Amino acid sequence: MTSERFAVTAEPGPQPGAVVLSLAGELDHDTADTLRSALEERTGAVRILVDCEQLSFCDSTGLNVLLRARLRALEEGGRLELAALRPPVARMFEITGARTVFRVYEDVAEALTDHPAGG
Prior knowledge:
single chain; alpha/beta; globular
């Protein structure tokens, strides 16, 4: 799924029910629906890993999409985690306090080797 400034690609994760969503570009008010749709298509996934390595910007709208998706995943017995937050995006998560509610990995490789219990 793509817009002019933002793209989401999905790949199955190494475990059954896992998916890796890779974000690229700018996640903001104008592009958030692309991510929202991609997340809704993964309803019921056991684990959604959001790869932010190519995400250059995230505003409060994008953050709220991720927070809502995390809550929905928890309600369904799954989890939503983040990997590879770049400094500008990491700062948004730190300033808002959202960094403390997500499990965040240094990179996708680290995340895919971790098998945490529960959410």
